[in-house]
Amino acid sequence: MKRNMTCIACPLGCSLTVEYSEGLDDVTVTGNRCAKGEVYAREEILAPKRTVTATVSLTAGELSRLPVRTDRALEKELIADLLTELYRIEVSAPVAPGDRVLTDFRGTGVNVIATRRCGSRSDE
Amino acid sequence: MKIRRIDVLVIGAGASGLTSAIKLAEMGYEVSVVERENTLGGILNQCIHSGFGLHYFNEELTGPEFADRLIGLLPDALYLAPNATVDRLIDDENGLGALVFSPESGITRYSSRAIVLAMGCRERNRGNIHIPGSRPSGVYTAGLAQRLVNIEGYIPGKDVVIVGSGDIGLIMARRMSWVGAKVHCVVEIQPYPSGLTRNIVQCLNDFNIPLHLSHVVTKINGNDRVQSVEISPVSREKERGPGSFTVECDTLLLSVGLVPENELTRKFGIAMNHETSGPKVDSRLMTSKPGVFACGNVLHVHDLVDYACEEAERCAKGVDEFLRGVAPETGGPVVSGANVRYVVPGAYNPGSDNRFYLRPMIVKNKSRLSVRAGEVEIYGKNLPHVQPSEMVEATLSKDALKACSGQTLEVRIE
Fold first, then answer.
1. Nearest-by-CA chain A residue for B198
2. At what angle do helices B305-323 and B15-26 cross, to 10 degrees?
């Protein structure tokens, strides 16, 4: 089987052609200009993944929402569940970029980390 | 009225303002940064998606992380005035400077030897693209909606149509989907998408959001709130032609371009470039007013913050030369030729390597960038793909520029 796709690993956006067997044990990627393209194409056929960015509720801080991201790409089919979980979470200031907001989501090894610094309201 | 005397006043604490301030402070100058918002980092703070920093920090970051890196580089000696609005630029018996208002400090007269304009840009809105119909609530620019969702924590609507397939429009299609809204479609007037293909893939295709190319919104319906929009194929007919359809929605997001925010610049009588809507600058990024420099989106709209930061560093170098009284070698003007909307800066200095940013006017695969002095090509490079939404960079060597000094350079894409 054959599939054409655009690589999303960087802004270059290489046009990839992926040829693979029925059982997905033999995957060939062409059109990529770097190794990331090959990894992306394989994952896209086997188990597509995306980095997720969102915000969570922030209490006692100068801001009301804290931006967060996954520290690596997460299986696409788990994204909706992760977002539901994130919209329930409340984080308390102070917080710094890199601070863990959620650890090892559903055993995937994917963590969610803060991406912005926010002091406590009382700091002012 | 208080007077603050410094070496350099930087207006705007976004990516460009912070970068130029950091570099100037590192060179030993006394620098003040005035910022309208009460936080630093500008637009980066609301761009919570990743994709920033690949060139400048060699690492993929989100907007807030990029801003935090820059803020971390600010030296302690730097004077920051947040929550401060510049009313006007001044040149009088106290020298060059600005009149600045803030609730904390009242009115302050800044007096500086040089000024860096880094006010960024503003979104085009409904009035700029003339969408007919009623004027209900629910029509937002995409960047405003992004701020509401990502910073204020409000969701502006549940059933969304987006006008414009630039990267901001595409990013917002994904963002609105991820906060639980239904994005019905993206409407693009051009026959091709104006955002990056990777954003078409991960922001539209992942969510099965249709993209209507060569279409425009021809009517907004609704009294208090948007109820539906009429979408039509682009045609020369005045009347609603065949192929028009109506989409029920409560929200219309407009991602229809950015314009450098130059009210201060214009009011000060600085010469403007009509193609970029930014000031005209020389090879050091100095405007027509000696001592006043510009960088980042106030100069011309950049696609990548990384490029804006690079330009801000170059601007800081220009300010340093000016303050040390080093006059640049004057090469000659740089003008846009075939298929090039603009090139910045519009002059070159044969005394060093020069970097230029230019905006193509065409969509083409396998094109070529050519810089000529008369009939002689002094620089050329192959471009695998060009489109108007992707800026092109060219760095010309000192040697190549020395050889043609005095002549006008023409930049073209063929």
1. A8
2. 40
Nearest to A97 among B68, B201, B206 (CB): B68
- The ipTM (two decimal places) reads 0.90
Say whether residue B202 is in contact with chain A using an 8 A CB cutoff. Answer: yes
Q: In this predicted structure, what is the pLDDT of residue B242?
A: 79
Same domain, B146 and B243: yes
CA pair distance A63, A81, nearest whole angstrom: 25
CATH 3.10.530.10 assigned to A53-123: yes
- The answer to whether residues B122 and B144 touch, using CB atoms and an 8 Å cutoff, is no
Closest by Cβ to B153, choosing from A51, A65, A76: A65
Q: How far apart are CA B200 and CA B203, in angstroms?
A: 6
Q: How far apart are CA A70 and CA A53, in angstroms?
A: 7
Domain boundaries, chain A: 2-46, 53-123
Partner residue opposite B201 with nearest CB, options A6, A57, A83: A6
Residues of chain B neighbouring A83 (CB-CB closer than 8 A): 178
In this structure, the answer to whether residues B203 and B137 fall within a common structural domain is yes
- Whether chain A has a CB inside 8 Å of the CB on B149: the answer is yes
Q: Do A67 and B48 touch (CB under 8 A)?
A: yes
pLDDT digits (tens, 9 = 90+) for B90-100: 999 889 999 99
Q: Is beta strand B159-163 parallel, antiparallel or unpaired with respect to B182-187?
A: parallel
